[in-house]
Amino acid sequence: MVTHVNAEAPGDERGALLAFLDAERGGIRRALLGLTDEQAATRPSASELSLSGLLKHVAEVEEGWISRAKGVAPAIERTEANWDECFCLIEGETVESVLAYWGQVAERTEEFIRSLPTLDATFALPDEPWFPKEDVSMRWVLLRLITEMSRHSGHADIIRETLDGRTAFELVAQERGESWG
User: Pfam families annotated for this entry (predicted)?
Assistant: First the structure.
């Protein structure tokens, strides 16, 4: 599994935002505990969402935002032609490999955020209809990532409970090596 980001000094703004981001990542990671790749790929509702698809999506989204903030193209460019691959594992990908990739992304995110002199630093987003038209700050990017992780962490809770009845509380206890209930 992915190691947690070292959010030192959570009492300062930067540390607090990184800690909140990692807490939301944890909800998604925990939803995958004990599942096979096949179980993680299951879509138990009318939605196209699966746990492995959510995992891949959030890893790519985080990498994309941080790359744009650094002024470089995301490692994986998504277009209408390949957008569907953002929500499913493709040949050679496993839950374990995507978790490892996401762990590296999380480490690079923290390293980059901690290297900034201020969270007020801004950058322009690409001219796309779903992006704000004005420049955004690194604080905005962190809040955007927290929102993204939080939304998908909730999706992951519902999918996991639908798959096998396991709740977030049980998964937290399992992650800690404790029993629940």
Answer: MST
CATH code, 165: 1.20.120.450
**Domain hosting residue 70, numbered range:** 27-175
Helix (H, G, I), strand (E, B) or coil at 123: strand
Mean pLDDT of the chain, nearest integer: 89
Residues 30, 58: Cα–Cα separation, whole Å: 14
Residue 18 included in any domain? no
Which parts of 32-137 fold into alpha helices (H)? 37-40, 51-70, 95-115
Residue 39, C-beta contacts closer than 8 angstroms, at least 6 positions apart: 51, 163, 164
Q: How many residues does the chain have?
A: 181
Structural domain count of the chain: 1
List pLDDT tens digits, range 69-111: 999 988 888 888 888 888 899 999 999 999 999 999 999 999 9
For 175, residues 6+ apart whose C-beta sits below 8 A from its C-beta are 26, 30, 33
CA distance 107 to 55: 16
Supply the pTM of this predicted model: 0.88
Query: What pLDDT is attached to residue 10?
Result: 53
